[in-house]
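Final report, closing paragraph on structural work. Over the funding period we assembled a curated collection of sequence-structure pairs, and we close with a single example.
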Amino acid sequence: FDFAPFVRMVMGDDIDACRREVKSQFALYVGGMGAREKNFYNDYAKRLGYVDAAQEIQDLFLTGQKQQACDAVPDELIDDCCLVGPAEHIKEQLSRWKSAGSRGEIGTMVISATKSEELRLVAEELL
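Its predicted structure, as stored:
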């Protein structure tokens, strides 16, 4: 088996705006995918070290406070799981993913990018 993480990518000069673009998806997945006791994404966020945040996101989302759930998603969680921000920041993020690949921790990255310049940056850094 090969570990192939799905990685969202949003490149732009305003890192906070880029993070906001993916926080609603994280709030949905961490907060609302599955039952409270059986949510893969919530468990995964906890395994990454975001125990308190994962619980707060889920509590907010399941009580209908979806915007507050988005606001509760830590920037660090986004940075750990996504490629966001200015090109130089994304290059730093890609170096961590590349190192994980060198150690055999991941084999393939499935990158969700919508702009040609995003794909070009990834190709230049990883290929």
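The chain has a mean pLDDT of 94. The helical segments are 15-32, 40-47, 51-62, 66-72, 75-81, 87-102, 116-126. We thank the funder for supporting this effort.
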